[in-house]
Amino acid sequence: MSNTERLDQPLEHSLQDVAVTDVLAPACDQRLYNFDIAPSRKQGRTWSSYNIFTLWANDVHSLGNYTFAIGLFALGLGAWQILLAMGFGSLFLLVLLTISGFVGYKVGVPFPVMSRISFGVRGAHIPALFRGGVAIAWFGIQTYLASLVCNILVLALFPSAEVLTEHKLLGLNHLGWICFAALWVIQVIIACYGIEMVRKFEAYSGPIILVTFLVMAIAVVIQAKGHITWEPEATRNGKPWALHGWDMWHEILAGASGWVAIYGTFVLNFCDFTRGAKSKRSVVLGNVAGIPVNMLFFGCIVLLLAGGRFTVDGKVIAGPEDVVHTFATPFLVLACLALVVLTIGVNLMANFVAPAYALTNLSPKKLDFRKAAIISGVIGFVILPWNLYNSPAVINYFLGGLGAVLGPLFGIVMADYWVLRKQQINVPDLYTFDPDGDYYYSKGVNNRAVIALVPSALISIAFAFSGQIHELNAFSTFAPFSWFIAAGIAFVLYLIVADRSRTFRDVDGEAIAVQAHH
Predict the structure, then answer these.
(1) Of 312, 330, 285, nearest to 222 (Cα)?
(2) Which segments of 22-164 does DSSP mark as H helices, in order?
(3) What average pLDDT does the segment 123-132 reach?
(4) What is the sign of the dihedral through the CA atoms of 161, 167, 173 and 178?
(5) Pairwise CA distance, residues 134 & 402, whole Å
(6) Which tens digits make up the pLDDT trace of 163-190?
(7) Banded pLDDT at 61 (limits 50, 70, 90)
(8) Which helix (H) or strand (E) covers residue 172, if one does?
(9) Percent of the chain at pLDDT above 70?
(10) Cα(518)–Cα(509) distance, rounded to whole angstroms?
(11) Sign of the C-alpha dihedral computed for residues 215, 217, 220 and 225 taken in this order
């Protein structure tokens, strides 16, 4: 095979305390292939419907999601309106995540490799690095937010630690540095053991999270003596007001679309997890239990926490972390620990796996999942994420701009897989630079995918910045629906410019696959 460096030595992989020997396929180019990004064998996959459910049990209950949902409460939406917004959003997500998850199950590869199908063996770095870049920044920010909860825990147990909050270094007090560094180390260690350790962590932490939030909600209901404010009185310019008619439905649909936008990262690289799914049934059942059912539970918890606290003190809380202050010390400690465990779980699956695979994909010959995870963690540390979080310009422009591109990427990848190729994938050719390979395109890049990406990405970015840039105000009315609009435009554009003269072959990857315990 031309331009191919062959790799035929055995690879020792011992991340799960058991040495695993796989002979890497000699037909694959080591610049595109290693143990961690090779296809996973169908036999021996470990992700059951329960594992996929616990994935969502962690992620749906993230602190950021509570902030978003309680924001709907603060807008003046009542209980049934919030639940309806979540219901619509969960149905949209169920469809998107299922079709994305099926791709991972069939092909058995992580997102950067799956991107080679539509973008080419070199062009795949475009979607992979966009997804990974967003994740690294949010990994640091989420770790910082978890460290704030950890601060509360330390001060509750050791009041004398208050002295550590009196001085700052690079924008963070000494106690904050200690908590942030400790949480950073814990997450990096877990990630170094690979995706299988992430699966195990989520499996145990999921039920803990669900039980903890249920107990927190019950405690707030008791504090409110059973009186929950289901429809808080919102004010505008100091006068009472309420949403009615189209304004109400706009906010409901905007809230539903907002849920999809929040998971715009996850619908893109859900294959990172479903590549280890036991069956399509596992994907469907895990998604049904974890998304609509779990989101209904989540919505009820939001209403009880926000409505209960509103009854008690007339204030709309920002998130669960605002509730733990009101509990007695023993339960405050347990609640803080649960919130920390929750944030670690969310960070691992949403913000650690994607960049680890993206960096591994950059140089499979030199990097594996463990090394790439450490590099991702180091970058997430040195960017001093608390300064990013406290900078509206960074959040709105940098992360907002990067995140806006993910919708168009999803549209292109799904259009190529489901409509153009009709699920016919030649998996071995994903790992070769041979010019005759199915995914070599033009010097390794599918220029037609890039042509579809550029205008749709610019439109999506215009939506993202419509609230900050006066010249883009015309987009602001449709901004809540930008993910769908941009993904739809990219979907259509790609099908217009795609090369339909190509012959598509369906070849599984079992011949070059490794066991699923990554």
Answers:
(1) 312
(2) 49-59, 63-74, 79-107, 111-119, 125-157
(3) 94
(4) negative
(5) 6
(6) 999 999 999 999 999 999 999 999 999 9
(7) confident
(8) strand 172-173
(9) 87
(10) 16
(11) negative
- Structure tokens, 50: 């329960």
Block residue for tokens 């009186």: 227
Q: How far is CA 205 from CA 43, 327, 346, in A?
A: 26, 22, 10
What distance separates the 2 farthest-apart alpha carbons in the chain? 75
Query: Which tokens is 227 given?
Result: 């009186």
Interatomic CA distance for residues 438 and 14, integer angstroms: 33
Q: Which run of H or E residues covers position 371?
A: helix 369-382
Looking at this protein, which amino acid is placed at residue 46? T
**Beta carbons of 376 and 136 less than 8 angstroms apart:** yes
Return the number of other C-beta atoms located less than 10 Å from residue 436's C-beta: 9
Nearest residue to 483 via CA among 400, 420, 426: 400
pLDDT per residue as tens digits for the range 286-319: 999 999 999 999 999 988 888 888 888 877 776 6
Structure tokens at 167: 């001085």
Backbone torsions φ then ψ of 446, nearest 5 degrees? -85, 95
pLDDT of residue 251: 80
10-20 pLDDT per residue, tens: 444 433 433 33
How many whole angstroms separate alpha carbon 186 and alpha carbon 191? 9
- Read off the pLDDT of each residue in 105-133 and give the average, rounded to a whole number: 96
| Count of CA atoms in the C-beta half-sphere (13 A) of 99 | 16
The SS3 assignment for 5 reads: coil
Integer Cα distance of 284 and 101 in angstroms: 9
CA distance 171 to 391: 12
Cα-Cα end-to-end distance for the chain = 28
- Taking 70 as the threshold, does the pLDDT of residue 85 lie above it? yes
d(CA 227, CA 287): 34
User: d(Cα 176, Cα 146) in Å, to the nearest integer?
Assistant: 10
Query: Which residue do the tokens 């606290």 mark?
Result: 309
Q: How many Cα atoms within 13 Å fall on the side-chain side of residue 293?
A: 12
Residue 21, classed as helix, strand or coil, is strand
Kindly tell me if the per-residue pLDDT of 4 is higher than 50.
no
> How far apart (Å, rounded) are the C-alpha atoms in residues 406 and 380?
20
pLDDT of 400-409, one tens digit each?
Answer: 666 788 999 9
| Distances from the Cα of 501 to the Cα of 237, 421, 453, 472, 497, angstroms | 61, 11, 21, 39, 12
> Hey, what are 478's tokens?
């449709």
Specify whether the CB–CB gap between 295 and 60 falls below 8 A: yes
**DSSP letter string over 376-399?**
HHHHHHHT-HHHHHT-HHIIIIII
Using alpha carbons only, how large is the chain's radius of gyration in Å? 23
Q: Indicate the average pLDDT of the chain.
A: 86
**Mean pLDDT for the stretch of residues 492-515:** 94
